[in-house]
Amino acid sequence: MNSEKKLLILVGSPRREGNSAALARSVQQGAESAGTEVELLFLDDYITSFLRDCRSCRKESGECSIEDRFRELFFEKFLPAEGVVIASPVYWYGLSAQAKAFFDRTFCYYAASYPEAERVVAAMTRKRIGLVMASEETYPGASLGMVHQIQEYSRYTHSEFVGYVRGVGNSRNEVTRDPSDPLVAAENLGREMFVRRFSDYRIDTDRSSKVWPSVRDPEQG
C-alpha cells in the first residue's frame, strides 16, 4: 500500500472528456487501488500565460507577476507530491502548449534570482515521474520527442522516469478502441508508480549483478 505517497496527475489537454483525460483517469484508478493519495488536475485551470522575461517581469519580492494560479499549482500541488504523471496529447510531435508551459514556468521559482530557490530546487528533485500520451498516429516515432523531453527533465531533476503509456485515438474516447489496451497499461502505471523497478546506472554506480531481486538474493535481502 502507498497510503503515505501523494501522486499528482497533470492533464495538458483542453478536453475534459478526451483521450488524454481518459488515460489520466485510468492512472488515477490504478493509483487509488494501491492506496495512493491522488489528485488529478487540468492545467487549463491554473495556467493562462507563457513564461516571460523574469529579469523584467519579476516583482521586487522575487515573486512571479503573472496573475494566474500557477504559483498555487506549483507550491501547493506539485512540490509536495512524491510522484507526478503528465497526461498530454501529442501536438506537433511534442507536449501540448499547456504542459510545456508548466515546465517553463517553474523556471521563475528555481532560478537563483528567486529568494527561496534552494528550497524549491530541493522539493523539485527525486520524484517518481510518469507520462501518458494520446496520439492519432500509430507511427512509433510520433511520441518519441515527448518521451525524450520527460526523460531529460527527470534526469535533470534527479527523478526516476518509471514509465510511459501511449494510446492511439483521435475522436472522443477513441483510445478505448486501441487494441494495445492503453487504459489497462495506464492503470498499471498508476498502481505501480511507487513500486515499479527503475534502473538508470552510470559506469561507476555500485549495483547488484542481478536486475530482479529474489528472496534468495543476499544483496537484495
Short structural description:
By secondary structure, the chain is α/β, with parallel strands linked by helices. It has helices spanning 19-33, 54-57, 70-78, 97-105, 107-110, 117-124, 144-156, 182-191; strands at residues 6-11, 37-42, 83-89, 128-135, 160-168.
What are its keywords?
221 residues, alpha/beta, Rossmann fold, 33% helix, 16% strand
Question: How does this model look, in words?
Answer:
The chain is an alpha/beta fold and 221 residues long. The chain has one domain: Flavodoxin domain (Rossmann fold). Helix content is 33%, strand content 16%. It has helices at 19-33, 54-57, 70-78, 97-105, 107-110, 117-124, 144-156, 182-191, and strands spanning 6-11, 37-42, 83-89, 128-135, 160-168. Strands 2-1-3-4-5 form a 5-stranded parallel sheet, with helices on both faces. Helix 1 runs parallel beside helix 8 (182-191).
How are the SSEs placed, and which strands pair?
Elements lengths: L5 E6 L7 H15 L3 E6 L11 H4 L12 H9 L4 E7 L7 H9 L1 H4 L6 H8 L3 E8 L8 H13 L3 E9 L13 H10 L30
Parallel strand pairs: 1-2, 1-3, 3-4, 4-5
Helix pairs in contact: 1-8
Portion of residues in beta strands equals 15-25%
Question: Overall 3D geometry?
Answer: globular
- Estimate the helix proportion, in percent: 25-40%
CATH topological fold name: Rossmann fold
Give a quick account of the main beta sheet: strands, pairing sense, barrel closure: 5 strands, parallel
Low-pLDDT segments: none
